[in-house]
Amino acid sequence: MIMIFGIPGPLLFGQLLLGLINGAFYAMLSLGLAVIFGMLNIINFAHGALFMMGAFASWMLLDYAGIGYFPALILAPLLVGAFGIFLEKTIISRLYKLDHLYGLLLTFGLSLVIEGLFRNAYGSSGLPYRIPAILQGAFNLGFMYLPIYRGWVVVAALVVCISTWAIIEKTSLGATLRAATENAPLVQAFGVNVPRLITLTYGGGVALAAFAGVLAAPIYSVNPNMGTNFINTVFAVVVIGGMGSIMGSILTGFGLGVVEGLCKVFYPQASATVVFVVMVIVLLVRPRGLFGKAA
After folding, report:
1. Residue 263: its pLDDT value, please?
2. Sign of dihedral through CA atoms 267, 264, 30, 164?
3. 269: confidence class by pLDDT, cuts 50, 70, 90
4. 13-59 pLDDT tens trace
5. Three-class SS string for the chain?
6. Neighbour count for residue 148 (Cβ, 10 Å)
7. Residue 168 and which of 63, 69, 138, 208 are 20 to 30 A apart at CA?
8. pLDDT band of 163, cuts 50, 70, 90
9. Mean pLDDT over the full length of the chain
């Protein structure tokens, strides 16, 4: 058996894989939060509940309509994104000119309501979601077995994260959106429908959370608390990366997932708190985050 730093190789690589998987979810969720905060200036505490809704939407599509995993990977984010657009048009849009605290409190309340409704309807024990047949099994890499589905999650998360970054940072649509956040009246004077752009941005951020929820459904049981288990760590990831920084959220999400996985091998007692310890250190040294811009 291969030993690395006195640790069995399969154990070390297995924990690294788990860290990468958690990092993939951290990256996707923090990316959605960064998009919403960076473009709309709203701290969206309902993000965990919307992540959970994505998982439930995929389960409902399968259980009630017989729609499989891959179609659900497209349909569920669209459905939850449409719900996010409804929230933005009816509630969130009233908060743009108010202090951040109002948005945080409102979205926190929304998350409690959404989770409570699903808990009353489906209980808290969790519902199974089967891995699609094409993604079952594992590859023998020699030093460890790589479950195909978990490898797919990491690849899919990377593709979505990099695509989102490229759209916002490298396209004319992203440039228009960033300009609208800086000077909305000027952009609107050029004929751009800024309110519609903002609404679609919120819906897109919500759809990212729902996409992560669909990916998470076969790994974690589909239950109303699954978003709560992630959201505190995800907010720490956003703070460490820099509030509103797209690339910061992606790199920090994957990086901290790996750090958390390594902690479970070398010092398990610290695995639950290492992200928050890193957050405290970063805030002391660089309050705007690793990739955040100075105010």
Report:
1. 86
2. positive
3. confident
4. 777 888 888 889 999 988 888 888 877 778 888 999 999 999 999 99
5. CCEECCEEHHHHHHHHHHHHHHHHHHHHHHHHHHHHHHHHCCCCCCHHHHHHHHHHHHHHHHHHHCCCHHHHHHHHHHHHHHHHHHHHHHCHHHHCCCCHHHHHHHHHHHHHHHHHHHHHHHCCCCECCCCCHHHCCEEECCCCEEEHHHHHHHHHHHHHHHHHHHHHHHCHHHHHHHHHHHCHHHHHHCCCCHHHHHHHHHHHHHHHHHHHHHHHCCCCCECCCHHHHHHHHHHHHHHHHCCCCHHHHHHHHHHHHHHHHHHHHHCHHHCCCHHHHHHHHHHHHCCCCCCCCCC
6. 16
7. 69
8. very high
9. 86
Say how many residues make up the chain. Answer: 295
Cα angle, residue 153 at apex, residues 234 and 262 outer, rounded to 5°: 60
Whole-prediction pTM value?
0.90
Query: Which is more confidently placed, 100 or 138?
Result: 138
Distance (Å) of CA 139 to CA 116, 144, 220, 252: 40, 8, 21, 28
Query: What pLDDT was estimated at residue 95?
Result: 81
Domains of the chain: 16-123+146-285 (1.10.3470)
| Sequence-separated (6 or more) residues with CB below 8 Å from residue 188 | 180, 194
